[in-house]
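ARCHIVE CARD
Drawer: 12
Card no.: 0347
Subject: one protein chain, sequence and derived structure
Cross-reference: see card 0346
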Amino acid sequence: MSDVALKPLTAPIDTSIAPPGSKSLTNRALVLAALSDGISDLRNSLFADDTLVMIESLMRLGFRVIVDRNEKLIRVHGRSGRIPATQADLFVGNSGTTVRFLTAMCTLGRGRYCLDGVPRMRERPIRPLVTLLKNLGARIQHTLNPDCPPVEIHANGLPGGFTTFAAESSSQYLSALLMSAPYARHEVHVDLAPNQTSWPYVEMTLRLMDQFGHTPELERDPLTREPKRIIVPQGRYAPTQYDVEPDASNASYFLALAAVHPGSRVLVRGLSESSLQGDARYGRVLERAGVTIERLPEGIRATGPDRLAPFDIDLSDMPDLAQTTAVVALYADGPSVLRGLHTLRVKETDRLAALENELTRLGATIKIEDESLHITPPTSVRPARIHTYDDHRMAMSFAVAATRSPGVVIADAECVNKTYPNYFDDLRTLIAQ
């Protein structure tokens, strides 16, 4: 794969961009549309590695999926909770959403289904989801590693019933179960342990299920307001005409671009803090560093301050933005601390280790304490070739540093194809204005 070098900005910019559709929402909507009782159109869909393996897998399961890339449209013929194929081998690449969502969905079928991926996928845990589904009567087994894919499902429908969910390393396990739960033979009740991981992603799932016509019941503790129990009654999803929001996680790089360039302004069009995506509230993180954030009818605009203040921030609700925030911390006027990073070890790569390596390469002093990352920025960021570990977020976040500091080169840049194939083209267009 190729390296990318960017020419640093020499003057402030004032520009705008509309990122492509959300990966998280596109893959959730594909599952809900396939389970629905009719034909759904998903507009402004994302076409990237993670969504393409989801589309291919749905087709291998026998669903009719029609793709129009020019119109950014995916038409899905739902089968009312039935899985058409009675046998399928699904290759999911390194897409965590695909392997988890489809593992749960395949339990609704009648037959044998096997899900596998790239070598890194065989290191990413899936046992908590397997345990959840087994507790509800599913027959699933790990075929190699007792914690990770590949998994094999011998399905005869999902019986349903009662189960519990701890504060696991990924909220996707819970989201996967919830989306398939309406088609279980018995109502599904999930008791939740305190301190749920990445809860905004679960809220995203619940709200999207509601938009597709089936509403789970969420019970909260009357004193702490923490989520306590989710009840998913039996039912069906309705065919839906759904507009996928711009990807809030990918929008973070453009807001960060403004943040690290004093006087620069970048408007992310079509994004609002009322979004289904918790990451749409990233502006609140940047405000802690002194960035001016404007919530406008047309989107969210960031303006870089003369001085970036150091910050101490808990990112447990938006862990996918840890790398973006770490790069912003490189240019802060003092040490910063990022907390709540316990999920980063099991992402596309070990993101804590990757951040330590690459921030150190740029001259920062790094200390990791449990789930926290302490960053002392260098006096001047050093030139370096940034390793990306086949992780799209490493490439996209450190590219922000390349727009400010000379000699920062992004290695193996094609890894951005996972969620944003045109990222570097869009970034070059912005900084050329």
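Annotation on reverse: The first strand starts at residue 4 and ends at 5. The mean pLDDT is 96.
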